[in-house]
Structures are given as C-alpha cells and as structure tokens.
Design brief:
CATH superfamily: Ribokinase
Largest sheet: 9 strands, mixed
Helix content: 25-40%
Number of domains: 1
Strand content: 25-35%
Structural class: alpha/beta
Radius of gyration: 20 Å
CATH topology: UDP-N-acetylmuramoyl-L-alanine:D-glutamate ligase
Length: 331
C-alpha cells in the first residue's frame, strides 16, 4: 500500500496546478427539475410535478472537464454541442467555470446538444428525459476535432478520451488522436464504453469498470482472481501499459505488465456513486502529469473517487479537499 509523506503530498498538490489536459469526448448537459406531486393529471394516469426549482450541471465528458479545473489543472475540452438552447446553457457553464474552450467545442447544426433531464419529486426521480443523437459525427466534424487537437498538441501534458457512445469518439477520431498524442510523447488515458472498447490501442491507462469489462469480454466473473486475469487479458489485447479496473465499493485494481495493486475504497459512507468514475479518470491523469508514479496516481484517483461517493449528486472534488483529507490521514 502507498505510504505518502506530508512533503510528497505537498509536492504533488503544487504540481497539479497548471497542468494542461485535453478532454476529447461526449460533452453533455445534466438538467434537474425539482418539485412536488399533489395531484394526478386528468389527461393520463401520471403525476403532475409542480416545479419549484431547476438547474443545470455538466454531464458526461463535460464533468471530467470540470473535475480537472477543480483539481487546479487546465482543461481543454473537445466535443460538439448543438445549435440549441441547451448548447447555449452548456456554453454558459463553461464560461462560468473559467474553462477556455477556444476551438475545441464545435457547434453542429445537424445534432442536438446531448441532454439528460431528471424530474424529481419528494426526493424521488419520477422520470428521466434524454435528448441525444447516437450516430457518429460527420467526417467534416471529425476533420475539425483532429485539426483543432493537432493545433494544441504541444501545449498539453495529456489527453483523456471520455467515451459515452454518443458519436464523437469515432474509430477515426480515436485512432488519430492516440497516434498524434503518442507521437508527441503525451500521456493518454481512456474512460471507455462498450461500442469502441477494443479500439483504444497503445494507451497509457485504460479505465473500465467491472460491468464494462464483463460486457466487452462476454463473461461473468465469479471471483477476484478471474477479474484480474481478465484485466491482464485486456491489457494484452489493447497493448495498454496499465488497466485500472474500478469496482465500486470494492475499490479498484491496477494491472500492469509486472504488477498488480489492489486499492480499497476510501468512502466512509457511500451516499451516491454518480460521477465517481469521472473523478477517478481526472485525478489519475492530472496526478500522472504532476509527476506521480502509476501506483501513487491510482491511489490518489481511488481516494478522490471515494470522497465523491460521500456526497449526494455529481460533485467534483477540489484539490484542497483531496490533499487536506490525505494530510489528516497520515497524521
């Protein structure tokens, strides 16, 4: 198990500041409509929710962007938004959170902004409304993403490929972004989904969860040994340096060519697992850029993910909270 000293933690905390991370993937908007149910609709046997409050937050790859910013690093988002009201809201959230999105966010008139609206009454989700298009982006949009990424490759320290299977990370975008990044010796980390699972070749860290691994390999695992063997099989298939397999309350396991490290969860009380995976990939990547070795980075990422699980809702962890908690632990 990793044993940090106070000096090492302070060194890493300082080194988080200003690291530049590109995030390529499916930028999404999460909407929340809160209210009460006092009657049933006369039009259909459904509840009428009288809305008291509504707000919007980053979702999908946009939440990874926010996590990076809160950790003290500088995110460079790459993705698409629609020419619609939700796109304007998402743009506003980027501005409000001091994210410089320059040319990375492309407005695509042919697609809607990916949006997930949750209607909640009496602390219970009544319905979720999704607005999205899952088909691959056009070749012209692919051209723009790749061109714009190439323009800033010398500025960044790493790239995160954040895949929600909403069409931004096509086979061409995936292979060319990885090729460009590796040719410039940049760190590449991946948070995958099912459709493109085996396209992410030659990356530094590939971070699936257990369900994603089982679905991709078409297997269900009976015990931890089977899980870790499957992760090694996956590392060979992808020629990945490391697999970081997250397992919810069971923590995570880091699989490399010559090492296996099991990292228990740090959540003292799990309130909500939403957004934990985004925090893990963000913290892992920033830590690697800050000079952490892979075991230090995996530990920090798992610890940050545990802190997120103690909060209700998708709440990013700030650098101060992460390192203050770790400092308290080693006292």
């Amino acid at each position: 198990m990793i044993k940090f000293t106070a000096n090492r933690l302070q060194e890493l905390k300082n080194s988080f500041i200003g690291k530049k991370i590109a995030v390529v993937g499916d930028m999404m908007l999460d909407g929340y409509f809160w209210g009460d149910v006092k009657r049933i609709s006369p039009e259909a046997p459904v509840p009428i929710v009288e809305i008291d409050n509504q707000f919007f937050r980053f979702g999908g790859a946009a939440n990874v962007v926010l996590n990076i910013e809160k950790l003290g690093a500088i995110p460079f988002p790459f993705g698409i938004i629609g020419n619609d009201s939700e796109g304007k809201i998402l743009n506003g959230l980027f501005r409000d959170n001091n994210v410089n999105y320059f040319d990375g966010l492309i407005t695509d008139d042919s697609r809607p902004t990916t949006v997930k609206i949750r209607v909640i009454a009496s602390n219970q989700q009544i319905v979720r409304i999704d607005k999205e298009l899952k088909t691959n982006v056009s070749s012209s949009v692919e051209d723009k993403i790749i061109y714009n990424f190439n323009k800033i490759i010398d500025e960044i320290d790493a790239v995160i490929l954040e895949d929600y299977n909403k069409g931004v990370l096509t086979q061409r975008v995936i292979t060319e972004i990885i090729s460009i990044a590796k040719s410039h010796n940049k760190i590449v980390t991946v948070d995958p989904k099912f459709s493109n699972f085996f396209l992410y070749q030659n990356v530094d860290v590939f971070k699936p969860n257990r369900k994603e691994l089982e679905d991709a390999l078409g297997k269900r695992f009976e015990n931890q040994i089977e899980i870790e063997n499957a992760a090694r099989e996956l590392a060979d298939k992808l020629n990945a340096n490391y697999i970081l397999l997250t397992q919810g309350e069971k923590g995570s396991v880091l699989i490399g060519k010559d090492e296996t490290m099991r990292v228990p969860t740090k959540a003292r009380k799990v309130a909500d697992v939403s957004g934990a995976g985004d925090t893990v990939i963000s913290t892992l990547t920033v830590a690697l850029c800050a000079g952490a070795n892979i075991t230090e980075a995996a530990y920090l990422a798992n610890y940050a993910g545990g802190l997120v699980c103690e909060e209700v809702g998708i709440i990013p962890i700030k650098s101060e909270q992460l390192f203050d908690e770790l400092m308290e632990e080693i006292k």
